[in-house]
Amino acid sequence: MDQSASRIKVEEIEAALSEVGEIKAARIVAAPDGSIAEIHVLALPTKAPKQLVRDIESTLMAQFGIPVDHKKISIALLGRDSLKEDEPSPERSTVARPRICSINATVSGVQASASVALEIGEASYIGNASGPASETGRARLVALATLDAVGQYTDATISFALEDVAIVQLGRQKVAVSCIALVSGFGEQHLSGSALVRQNDNDSIVRATLDAINRRMGFLTTA
Fold this sequence. Notes:
Elements: H1 10-18, E1 23-30, E2 36-43, H2 49-64, E3 73-77, E4 99-108, E5 111-120, E6 123-132, H3 135-153, E7 159-170, E8 173-184, E9 187-196, H4 201-214, H5 217-220
Parallel strand pairs: 2-3
Antiparallel strand pairs: 1-2, 4-5, 5-6, 7-8, 8-9
Helix pairs in contact: 3-4
């Protein structure tokens, strides 16, 4: 049987959400028909907002049988000063770093495509990109597929733009260099990464792109 906020006291739902570890306060806004219109949560910065949203969805479904659209959930993170001494801060906690599972790049006529599979934490993400099969275009597609995979892991309020990627000669070594723009509610930030070409160009392009992002992985899941 369908449930709604009108059939269950809003205070009960708010109390249940406040029992979730990181959540310090929760407010429910009910629509005229009794459904949940908005959920506002104040939480500690010890868990990624994306995971908190999943916890909220699971709590509402498990305890009250209420499904909720994740777009209705708004999360505000408290500052680091709000953390107790016995609670790990984002800097001290272990940040999941992407691991390359596979890289596939194909050319069909004048079109090319790239697929990059990454393992982040305990989950796998596959990014894809396609476009013209020019030499520079193929390199960009590998970097774009990498960003697509990482973008599936990060919060929806964050997006990436590939500024440029290239294989350059430095002395006797070939090096992949990737420049990325990270766009979030805090503005635009430019990141760069590099990797020596050891196996092949595509592998190094993925590693250079991840090198630019890895230093910001904690921010990417808590912004």
